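Sequence in, structure out.
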Amino acid sequence: MLSRLRTACSLRPCVAACRWAHTKEKGKPLMLNPRTNKGMAFSLQERQILGIHGLLPPKVETQEIQAMRFQNNLKNMSDPLQKYIYLMGIQERNERLFYRLLMDDIEELMPIVYTPTVGLACTHYGHIFRRPKGLFISIQDRGHIRSILDNWPETNVSAVVVTDGERILGLGDLGVFGMGIPVGKLCLYTACAGIRPEKCLPVVIDVGTNNETLLKDPFYMGLYQKRDRSQAYDDLIDEFMEAVVDKYGQDTLIQFEDFGNHNAFRFLRKYREKYCTFNDDIQGTASVALAGLLAAQRATGKPITEHRVLFLGAGEAALGIANLIVMAMMEAGMTQTEARERIWMYDKDGLLVKGRQQEMDANQESFVHDSLGNVQSYLDAVNTIKPTAIIGVAGAGRLFTHDVIRAMGVLNERPIIFALSNPTTKAECTAEDAYTLTDGRCLFASGSPFGPVTLSDGRVFTPGQGNNAYIFPGVALAVILSGVRHISDTVFLEAAKTLSEQLTDKELEEGRLYPPLSNIREVSLQMAVKVVEYVYANGMAFRYPEPVDKNGLVRSTVWDTQYDSLVPDTYDWPGVSFAPKN
């Protein structure tokens, strides 16, 4: 009798487990789902209960061992695109392990999953395609966007990043190949700010492409047609915005990414008071650039109101940065007119001045000045305007020539040189040129990463990377947690100030204008806390009651890369509770 009782008791956990397992996903489909797959980290108990025992080698591995294997493989690769393909393959198979790898070595791997390698990946997207990671909506889907959203497997989306692929980094019109950008951005939502990946939705809007090479490419994956610029395009975007908030809620964050200049500003104006939306190329870039200037003023001892800024480029990035600088100057006591007078822009047709033959965009009117006479080149503009800072956002390559950099060094004791265009090949100058030609006196930042620079006298400078990733993940987390429905430019001003405050004096002495990327998770969380405090203090939040401990709120939501248990902690038998054996 006692023997039979012991046998029955030993079977009870298995019987209960089988009952439980039949109601859950199990077997090979569970291993093929990147959200539930653990690879060889499934415990023996999980393998037995979930019906995957024997489908894996018998060893049970820790996530640390798994990460070590992939890190070793990455170290043996030299080609950035090969690394990108390898990392994206891990994301497709094991989501938590992918983010563990990314967070463990964010400084090394961010340039792979984001700028600059993501640009290279986009140009090869149709050739390296393995598995779709986002939602593809074409102009042929008008009238059916809501039903397409219903096909997305996740029902609780908090953040959407959308592009129409017209202006991918400095690479131009890549059509649906631009999907790599929203995928990369949302990777950083999770890696930098701990936003749960299932709450993130990458979207590409396909209205065609004007890229003749792609239209002849048999591996292109979008519509083989020229871009639709008719009213149908606007109607499509309207329907998309309405469908997103109808399905996911009014406070769903929608980030616009890499739209053409002519659409970026008008969509921002059109939607910002109706939806929870922002344009990262305009507002995120502006915030990180302003943060660099605020850090630089600590080194120069010169307040921002005393700077004269000359832009190379006059598109959405330049105008976004310029307008936020104006806001910062006004906060410091200047009038709007006085602030705008200190900002100049130079594009492919020359300075933005009155009477110029070439047509100028309405968005540029605020920064059009009286003519300065015979200014034929950017170097002429530097020598005539005598800027304290030059900011490159033209995406046209090495236009901060040696003569331009030397001129800035003559005009200023501590010249500010920001070469912000992406990818690296499009940067206006290298870090080495900037430091060498100014004898190490410049305050330099770039959009893509450059390594440390050692001068002939042995001094070493670590250039700052003006990466939008310092801004948008933390801002996004704050907006999501506080229920903001309309994002003011003042939020990005607050974010810029918060970022500059996190730079230590020691880091500034090293040549940095931003905290190390290795610390970006903490930077993002602190930014989220500051922005949450700001939006509640200024009546922008809609989620009440207002949390008392905002720091605790932010940190309690951070997603953890450690594996969850896929079996219950206890098994219930009538009248008895059994804990599973280890």
